């Protein structure tokens, strides 16, 4: 996943903690902790996709009664019920002091919280993916190696490295624009550059096939697809 430079749900999940009265959930690291780091789709109360977190964060949400696990058959489980589910051969499993636990793929929050909003990391590649490998000036698509990243407001005039100021440009348009703004160069942008929504990251992962066989996972993520298509 890191090859796409996507950052998903790390520091934004400060709210995920155990209830003070509960004994903390002890999760035992297996296979280098890879299973605990696998992605889990988080749905809101209305089953709309909200974000992606890790198996570790998802289990804490369920353990602290903030979310239920949604299984492949569409049934919701609280932690005690989920803990009784048999771990099948193709499941990813996490060890606990009470035995093995099936790694969830999807959880559904009891209450949607706007705290959950991971960001897509700003990288050259992600800007190009956001723009669909299309030059934002002439509108033509090019192979990645033939594209540049253009600062809409040139750097020499105070333009920043931010989603709203970076666009994909072919080399011809980039040279033509030079140190001018689009208005000065009479080269209007095809679309206003924006910070992509987190579901862009999830769709990229699905498209890249990473979720069909993420590193460290035994089974794929086909159960995510209907929710991401809907979202
Ligand atoms: Zn161009």
Report on the architecture of this protein.
This protein folds into 2 domains: 2-118 and 200-230, no CATH class; 124-185, Orthogonal Bundle (DNA Binding (I), subunit A), CATH 1.10.30.50. The two termini are 21 Å apart. The strands form 3 sheets. It has a 5-stranded mixed sheet with strand order 3-2-8-4-5, with helices on both faces. A 3-stranded antiparallel sheet has the order 1-6-7, with no helix packed on it. A two-stranded antiparallel sheet has the order 9-10. The chain has helices at residues 55-63, 79-83, 124-130, 171-177, 182-185, 198-207, 225-230, and strands spanning 27-28, 39-43, 49-54, 67-70, 76-77, 93-96, 99-102, 106-109, 147-151, 166-170. The model is unreliable at 1-21 (pLDDT under 50). It has 231 residues and is α+β, with helices and mostly antiparallel strands. Zinc ion is lined by residues 135, 137-138, 140, 169-170, 172-173.
The span between the termini is: 21 Å
Strands, count: 10
Runs in which pLDDT lies below 50 for 5 or more consecutive residues are: 1-21
Bound molecules: zinc ion
Element pattern in H and E: EEEHEEHEEEHEEHHHH
Helix content: 10-25%
Mean pLDDT: 79
| C-alpha geometry | elongated
Largest sheet data: 5 strands, mixed
**What is the beta-strand fraction?**
15-25%
In what order do the strands lie side by side in the largest sheet? 3-2-8-4-5
Alpha carbon gyration radius: 21 Å
**What count of domains describes the coordinates?**
2
- Based on helices, strands and strand pairing, what is the structural class? alpha+beta
* Contiguous helical run count: 7
